[in-house]
Amino acid sequence: MRGLSDRQIIVTGAASGIGRAVALRLAEEGAVVSLLDRDAAAAHAAAEQIASEGGRAQVLAVDITDLAQIQRSISPLDAIDGLVNCAGWDSMARFVDSEPSLWRRVVDINLFGTMNMLYAVLPAMVARRFGRIVNIASDAGRVGSSGEAVYSACKGGIIALGKTLAREHASDGIIVNTICPGPTDTPLLAAMASDGGLGERIVPKLARAVPMQRVGAPGDYPGAVAFLLSDDAAYMTGQTISISGGLTMHG
After folding, report:
1. What is the pTM of this model?
2. Which of 6, 45, 185, 237 lies 20 to 30 A from 94 at CA?
């Protein structure tokens, strides 16, 4: 991809799943990747893999629900050219069977965590008049998802937030786009599949709802993320792209 070499890019949720796959691909493209995750050990393992393959990476052990912690951790960075908001979490339950404590945790991680990252990096991007942001939302935010009402609300919010920031910052040289994965084979999905509750009933059926007849793999997304961060997408902002095996078809 044009323009990715030497760019400083933060990837949240980079210790596992989609975030890790994205970080590996960006390092392969020549970017200098900051792997931001609360799981420091797993993030260091990913950074070691990147280094072993000739890439450049560093670890930022950060909880994205803590804005002050984010700001302290990124302040030593010389510049931030790109941000990929990939960190997320959920636990499946029908809304009427859930509790406000669960809603708060889901919102804190998925929506406020994303807003915290954006709030932390945007001022410097505005000052430099350059930035590339990719928010990882979910098809749940476009079409809903049984057992994930609050998560779907958060991801829908991220889609709307991305469009608004794309409008607000187009004149600042900042591009903001959103990718919506479908169900994906990650540690989070595996945890849902063995939760002994609703997830255990729903997750095994997900592939049948996808026209391609499989759930996604973490490696299905990094190419699109790299494209949106690259100069090849320099005239593209405010867009929402589903990568879900045809589960969602817009246009």
Report:
1. 0.94
2. 185
State the catalytic residue, choosing from 119, 151, 221, 235. 151
| Under 8 Å between Cβ of 18 and 184 | yes
Identity of the residue numbered 94: R
- pLDDT of 189 reads 82
* CA triple 105-153-60, angle to 5 deg: 50
Q: Report the C-alpha gap between 34 and 22 in whole angstroms.
A: 11
Alpha helices in 29-75 (DSSP H): 40-52, 67-74
What is the pLDDT, as a whole number, of residue 30?
98
Question: Which residue pairs from 67-75 have beta carbons closer than 8 angstroms and sit at least 24 positions apart in sequence?
Answer: 67/116, 67/119, 67/120, 70/116, 70/117, 70/120, 71/120, 73/36, 74/10, 74/34, 74/120, 74/121
Residue 40 confidence (pLDDT): 97
- Specify whether 151 is catalytic: yes
